[in-house]
Amino acid sequence: MTSAVQPTAADHTELRHVLRSGTQLGVLQTALVAAFGLAQPRIDGMTELLVCGAILVVGIAATIALPGLWTRARSIEGIAGAAGIGLFATVVYLLIDVAVLQPLGVYTNRWLEIGGGSNWWYHPIWWMVGTYMPWLGAWVLANQTAKSGAPNPAMLVVMTLVLSAVIMAVATVAKFPGASFGLGTFAVSVLPAQAVLVAITGLGGRRG
Predict the structure, then answer these.
(1) How far is 45 from 31, CA to CA, in rounded Å?
(2) Which helix (H) or strand (E) holds 25?
(3) What is the pLDDT averaged over residues 156-169?
(4) Measured between alpha carbons, how far is 166 from 189 in angstroms, rounded to an integer?
(5) Which of 53, 84, 89, 111 has CB atoms 3.0–4.6 Å from 25's, for a disulfide?
């Protein structure tokens, strides 16, 4: 595999590196979730949109871009390594969540009601989404590198946000169940937006 030949040039997927990077991402995600959870009940209106929206955007950017940059994703190995970083980050977050965030009461009663009285309902969702987003983010970075010789994380983030906004608008106008112009729908729209971006960046490119 590529990393066995040039471990510092591309597809940096050694287990220790993946675990260390996953820990860093998980701690960052935890801090952002805590900040969002503490801020949202205390502010409203445009202030809530700006503050919580900024936290959400930082979280999205870090989750989709950092793992692929850390593994220097160029081929399927680096892309898979980025997914591994995302997966371990979810383990770190969920451990801190159970040990610290839940006992401190970071989440509102509404969060508890959505889960039918359980604080555990979102854990498998977090595990899946937290792996999916770095995986497709790294895929885009690899596609960019195959075309231009270097990844462009800024373009990855900007295009993901733009496509997410478009999907949110379409879903809301089309009256898709539960869709609205808000942070919740925007966050969910990131998932199909990433799939679309992988398809777009993969057109006409070759990856060794």
Answers:
(1) 23
(2) helix 15-39
(3) 98
(4) 9
(5) 89
Task: Count H helices and E strands in the chain, helices first.
Answer: 9, 0
Diameter of the chain measured on Cα atoms: 54
Model confidence at 208: pLDDT above 50 = no
Q: Which residues, in sequence order, are CB contacts of 138 under 8 Å at separation 6+?
A: 67, 68, 71, 73, 78, 79, 81, 82, 83
- Under 8 Å between Cβ of 77 and 12: no
- Could you report the per-residue pLDDT of 90-128, keeping only the tens digit for each? 999 999 998 998 888 887 666 667 667 777 778 888 999
Query: Rounded to an integer, what distance in angstroms lies between the CA atom of residue 71 and that of residue 17?
Result: 8
AA letter at 171: A
Cα–Cα dist 108/99, whole Å: 17
Q: What is the residue-wise DSSP string for 152-182?
A: -HHHHHHHHHHHHHHHHHHHHHTT-TT--SS
The answer to whether 75 touches 135, Cβ cutoff 8 Å, is no
Round to whole Å and give the CA distance between 183 and 60. Answer: 12
